[in-house]
Design goal:
223 residues, alpha+beta, Beta-Lactamase, globular
Length: 223
């Protein structure tokens, strides 16, 4: 397997707006054709001081972020090209719990610049969403409107479609942005090793119709 990985100071495309603050990244290439960039925020850690405001993550949020970054670096082989993978993690605002992908790790795998542009636009659009996941009456009335990450978190079951056009806007709040940029969609619950409830959701979108190899991903998740 002709694969090499190293840390780069910056990717060959703009990362402006892909996170709330400065991003670290790593780069891998497979036979010189597939390019994988993994990004994570350097802010919000105890050792890094940042003047920008941050949402308050759950108690084990930093540990989960580190594990997700490690997992994303393993995605070069099981997933075919042209995808964005982003983690939706838990944050607390007041007494309420929400899922957000802002300030969470994500990865881009691509061939060309057009794919990067489309996937980055989708990523930026998602940063504005906070998905409520508290088990209260207001949410339980209609979980359809939570969107795929919210439904997957609450049910603990994965969700996918070959083409995001199969969703309605009510089922998938990001649909209007997604249909012009991505096609295949998959959301997977991420569980803490010692807990029965999900600790977040891994969202995978591709500029192709659904082109994932599920067995490879499931094997990685079991590691």
């Amino acid at each position: 397997m002709a694969m090499k990985a190293q840390t780069y100071p910056s990717p060959p495309f703009s990362t402006r707006g892909l996170g709330p603050c400065e991003l670290s990244c790593s780069y891998s290439t497979y036979y010189g054709h597939y390019h994988l960039w993994v990004f994570w925020s350097i802010c919000g850690n105890d050792e890094v001081q940042c003047v920008k405001p941050h949402l308050v993550a759950t108690a084990n949020g930093a540990l989960i972020k580190n594990k997700i970054v490690y997992f994303l670096r393993l995605l070069l082989d099981p997933l075919l090209p042209r995808f964005l993978v982003q983690f939706w993690g838990l944050v607390k605002i007041g007494n309420k719990m929400y899922l957000t992908t802002c300030d969470q790790p994500f990865a881009l795998k691509y061939f060309g610049n057009l794919e990067v542009k489309q996937l980055c636009e989708y990523r930026k659009h998602c940063l504005d969403y906070l998905i409520p996941v508290d088990d209260d009456d207001e949410i339980s009335v209609d979980q359809v409107q939570l969107g795929p990450p919210g439904r997957v978190f609450c049910s603990g079951l994965p969700e996918y479609t070959f083409d995001v056009r199969h969703y309605t806007r009510r089922e998938y709040p990001q649909r209007d942005c997604a249909v012009d940029r991505v096609k295949g969609y998959w959301a997977l619950p991420i569980y803490h090793p010692t807990q029965h409830l999900p600790s977040g959701v891994l969202e995978i979108v591709s500029t192709n119709e659904f082109c994932l190899r599920p067995n490879g991903i499931q094997a990685k998740l079991r590691v």
